[in-house]
Design a protein that fits this description.
The protein has a single domain, classed as TIM Barrel (Alpha-Beta Barrel). A hairpin with a 5-residue loop joins strand 2 and strand 3. The model has no long low-confidence stretch (mean pLDDT 97). Helix 8 crosses helix 9. It starts with a strand and ends with a helix. The protein is an alpha/beta fold. 33% of the residues lie in helices and 18% in strands. The chain has nine helices and nine strands. It is globular, with a radius of gyration of 17 Å.
């Protein structure tokens, strides 16, 4: 029986502030076998884990990540917005998360957030850091910027890539092959059992996002997806345990 990757979306983001070390650590406690996160680049070229291009929503600060140094980013409180018990959580660096996972078998899905701001040189920095930590075999790069994924594949053919997309991309497995991608990171509404089957015939894995309804999780498990991205890794872990996956 195929082992399905339980990707914790921005960590255990249903119970912790997203993209914080607290969230990543909690997700592992809740049974995640994979972690999904977002990488952006600071003014001084440092790789930080935050979903939005601005820090406004998830900290008490204001401003664009690209206009702030790592020191300025690190001074922000990234936990209090979620709950008082998380006061003092920081925006972590990619290196911190790689260090956490280095000695584990967790799969890391790194979403390159370079659709609005291009962050010149970010792909090379991410690739070099992943290699430095010896994590190339356990990382998948994803992005809505497919040009970025093609570039990543050209400089790091050993690292898997997954195309992020919304809605009904026609024969996405063919498109994925055209850009050298290994996986389909589709919004889950765009995933049907027959799509999963044909993608598998073409050697492409489905990792749909963001799946928080248990019934939808069950349907996707039955459809044969290779991984599921969820805010509730504990719920998915229970379903997979009952299945024996």
């Amino acid at each position: 029986m195929k082992k399905i990757i339980n990707f914790a979306h921005r960590g255990a983001s249903a119970v912790c502030p997203e993209n914080t070390m607290a969230s990543f650590i909690k997700s592992l406690d809740l049974g995640a076998t994979g972690i999904e996160t977002d990488v952006q680049m600071t003014k001084d070229g440092q790789l930080v884990l935050i979903h939005d291009e601005a820090i406004n929503r998830t900290t008490h600060g204001q401003g664009w990540v690209k206009d702030m140094t790592l020191e300025e980013i690190s001074a922000q409180d990234a936990g209090s917005w979620f709950g008082d018990s998380f006061k003092g959580e920081r925006i972590p660096t990619l290196a911190e998360l790689l260090e956490l996972l280095r000695e584990r078998d967790t799969i890391l899905n790194i979403e390159l957030k370079n659709g609005i701001f291009m962050y010149p040189g970010m792909e090379d920095k991410v690739v070099n850091l992943v290699r430095e930590f010896g994590m190339a075999e356990r990382v998948v790069f994803s992005s809505f910027n497919h040009y970025s994924l093609v570039y990543c594949k050209s400089i790091a053919p050993e690292i898997r890539t997954g195309i992020l997309y919304m809605e009904g991309l026609y024969r996405p497995w063919d498109y994925a092959a055209s850009v050298g991608a290994d996986a389909l990171h589709a919004i889950h509404f765009a995933v049907l059992p027959e799509f999963v089957a044909e993608a598998a015939e073409h050697g492409k894995d489905y990792h749909p996002f963001t799946v928080n309804d248990p019934d939808r999780m069950k349907a996707l498990i039955e459809a044969g997806v290779s991984g599921i991205i969820t805010d509730y890794p504990d719920q998915l872990a229970k379903l997979l345990a009952n299945r024996g996956a």
